[in-house]
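Hi X.,

You mentioned you wanted examples for the new student's onboarding notes, showing what a folding record looks like when two proteins sit in one file. Here is a clean example. The first protein comes first, with its sequence line followed by its structure tokens.
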Amino acid sequence: MTQQLVDFVKQPDGRLRIQRLSGQDVTDVIAEIQARCGRGTDNAYLEVIEYQLQTGWEVLSEDDKLARGDLYSGLILTDDTRRDERGDLLASGRVYYYNSYALRSEINEIETAGFVILDGNGDPLLPDGG
């Protein structure tokens, strides 16, 4: 399995904090990813959060965003979707996005500040499908 480099922490105010794990080895791995994938790129960010993407989190596709009516071109993360047998999005609950994506990159914030805060939108899906 992929090395965990960050923690996803849901905040009481509905936002998501992506916190870099401590340790020089984590810092070195993130720097190497940035050098290999390109500083501040979505590819570098996706590689840094790959552990979470293998454990229940996902990035909404462009089709998913259209189905939701999102007019946001940045990456949208969620751990709260309901899909049909083909994998098409039926419903989604709370989603998280980086409001400053046009000015700064999530991965650069994680590398330099040690964390990034994503805004949240939507209510969690109810277990009964509501």
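Then the second protein repeats the pattern, sequence line and then tokens:
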Amino acid sequence: MAPYCDAQAQFIKSVRSSMDDNAKQFLQHQDWRNIQPKTARYGTASKRQLDASSFYVKSVACFVPHVVIPGHVPICPRCESSSKVDTHGTNVRWIKVPKTLFGLSSHRYLDTKFYWCGTCRKRFAGYDKWSMQLSAKVWLGYFPFNLSDRFAVDDELCSFIISCANDPTSTIHKKHEQMVTDKHYQDYQCYLYLVRIKRIRSRGTSTGHSDGQLRIDRIYEPGMAESASMRKLRLSRERLVCVRRKLQTEQTKLDSGLPFQRILDEKNNRNNLGARLPYLGVSKLRKLIDMGITTGNELLESDDPHIKWRLKQTLSNYFESVRASIADLKETEEECTTQMLLNEFAVENDPVAAEPAARERQQQPAAAELPPTFSKLDDSDGYNGKVLSWSQINAVLRTQFAHRKPMQDSKLRGLKATMLKIDFQYKLAKKTRVWKRQGESYRPFTCIVTVLNEHGLCVYWRALKSSESMKEIEDDLKKLD
């Protein structure tokens, strides 16, 4: 199931079909990083009627490497070659579900294709991280997204998170959540304006999800008066339908031959041990199935001397009761059919008693049709507002730190120091331990030592195993001298 509404799925499908038909012409007037849906919701001069679902459709970033940069063939991440990579053909297809691309105030969907490598005989995605790293010179400065295995972050949101790196993760999460909420409020205000100028389709003509299904409000109308003969006809038809369903159920029991596996599955729940055929317990059913007898008909036809006569008698009584029930239901069906035909004849000869009620309904003023209610922020079938979680924000910060650490280390090595100031900080509580596996844990460090020069710049830091130990850093201090 796709994690978005039907209107979003239709828009993604239309973008894919346009890219398949004529990608070059389609991208002449579109930015592949932000393909927006065509809607007249911001235009005041247009009189086009809109669905509420048009506010729930997010933009799409359609990344197809061989189309975005003509002549470029993506490199296979396994064999690290592009000589036998197919960019067209039956083996090349779109991914199943686009990746969520988070932004500052809203999210988009990052779509791409699966390419086929003839050497490895396997597919790989167009935004595969190792494949793009092999051709980094091509995409440097052109691909403004930061990729993860399950999501992606655009450059604006990534810059915002990095600039707030000194704030707690909870604070960053709340700020991002507030931005998404403000965007939802702005869209809601625009929706109310369009409702005021009567450009939103009413509930009676749309459910708000662009699926063509009418709302249940359509049947909330004054009912017609029902005469006695019409009521009898309606009740006789309902009775006939009920009898035919029961007859079909009993006939299915007889035709199936009473499969033992189905009874065994029911009796595995202790609440159903005596629900059907209490003489047949779980152990007996398993023994019969192991002997190759899987239905009640097979057991009645079997000549195995190990099968007790009481068991056959129980199953014979069961089938006899089913046959008797079928015979009774058939008689009841004939009676109900006859009664229904008589009631139909009576209705045809009876004058319709609903004319006064019809006149009253025509005289009543038509109720004003209301527009659909606007979706909530977190409704996956509606607005579907998404916010980066705490773990995802921490993942962005860890990745950025990993990228900057070599540069920071080189800067530390290049700093000169005449005077050294040593400070022991970030002391860890004694009971704080890291879980490794069941029954095994360890203490990552006791404290962290930092060494500053005369200008207050850090020239050395280290996590120590013992508290304020000069012996551990003695050799390193000599190297700094």
